[in-house]
């Protein structure tokens, strides 16, 4: 009888040993990374000044990478659909493929780490390493684009705010107070060619 009880204990001891070895090996459960797009837009009429597209009416698309952003497209209100696409055969593991529209211009990006890669807006490609904030004016046939650091928005990875903490009111305030953003859209509106 004693040998039978010992035999019944062997599977239990083996299971306990297996659990303990997984703990020592550093097994951890990871949350799936967050990818997608967040859209914030506004338009004000009846202002006491001429409305400036990009400041008084704007469309901001945050292409989400985990808690922050891979890149942001801030346009003069001529937005469209934005989001992620399924990975294609040959895309690196863990990468994200983003696509959207700014006016009639396509936005595309493939990044493996949310910090490097190319963003293509219309026919022109930009390196994410040169700044992941894109100001886009679609007032002319060809878009005017200015590339800036993401720290302008205080958005992760260059800042402290998560994409969920970025609000419409927050962005409107930056549009009105940040000299680079204001100047870009004021100049673009003033230089727009009549169509």
Keywords:
alpha+beta, 3 helices, 24% helix
What does this 3D model show about the protein?
It is a single chain. With 195 residues, this protein is an alpha+beta fold. It has one domain (35-191). The chain has three helices and ten strands, in the order H-E-E-E-E-E-E-E-E-E-E-H-H. The longest helix is centred in the first third of the chain and has 23 residues, at 2-24. The model has no long low-confidence stretch (mean pLDDT 84).
Which helices and strands occur, and which strands form pairs?
Elements: H1 2-24, E1 35-43, E2 57-65, E3 68-75, E4 79-85, E5 96-102, E6 105-111, E7 118-121, E8 124-127, E9 133-137, E10 144-148, H2 168-177, H3 179-191
Parallel strand pairs: 3-9
Antiparallel strand pairs: 1-2, 2-3, 4-5, 5-6, 6-7, 7-8, 9-10
Brief summary of the model shown:
With 195 residues, the protein is of the alpha+beta class. The protein has helices spanning 2-24, 168-177, 179-191; strands at residues 35-43, 57-65, 68-75, 79-85, 96-102, 105-111, 118-121, 124-127, 133-137, 144-148.
Alpha-carbon Rg, integer: 24 Å
The SS-based structural class is alpha+beta
Distance between the termini: 96 Å
Q: How many domains would you count in the coordinates?
A: 1
Order of helices and strands: HEEEEEEEEEEHH
Question: What's the helix count?
Answer: 3
Instruction: Describe the main β-sheet briefly.
Output: 5 strands, mixed
Inertia-based shape: globular
Helix content: 10-25%
Total DSSP E strands:
10
Give the overall average pLDDT. Answer: 84
Instruction: Tell me which oligomeric state these chains represent.
Output: single chain
| Regions with little confidence, pLDDT below 50 for 5+ residues | none
Strand content range:
25-35%
Major sheet: arrangement of strands: 1-2-3-9-10
């Amino acid at each position: 009888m004693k040998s039978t009880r010992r035999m019944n204990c062997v599977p239990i001891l083996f299971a306990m040993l297996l659990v303990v070895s997984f703990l020592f090996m550093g097994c951890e459960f990871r949350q799936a990374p967050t990818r997608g797009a967040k859209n914030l837009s506004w338009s004000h009429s009846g202002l006491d000044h001429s409305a400036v597209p990009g400041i008084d009416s704007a469309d901001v698309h945050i292409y989400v990478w985990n808690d922050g952003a891979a890149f942001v497209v801030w346009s003069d209100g001529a937005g469209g659909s934005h989001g992620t696409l399924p990975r294609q055969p040959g895309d690196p593991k863990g990468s994200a493929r983003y696509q959207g529209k700014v006016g009639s211009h396509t936005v595309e990006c493939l990044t493996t780490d949310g910090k490097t890669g190319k963003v293509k807006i219309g026919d022109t490609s930009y390196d994410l390493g040169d700044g992941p904030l894109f100001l886009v004016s679609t007032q002319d046939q060809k878009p005017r684009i200015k590339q800036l650091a993401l720290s302008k928005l205080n958005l992760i990875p260059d800042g402290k705010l998560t994409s969920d903490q970025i609000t419409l009111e927050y962005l409107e305030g930056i549009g009105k107070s940040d000299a680079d953003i204001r100047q870009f859209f004021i100049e673009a509106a003033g230089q727009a060619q009549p169509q």
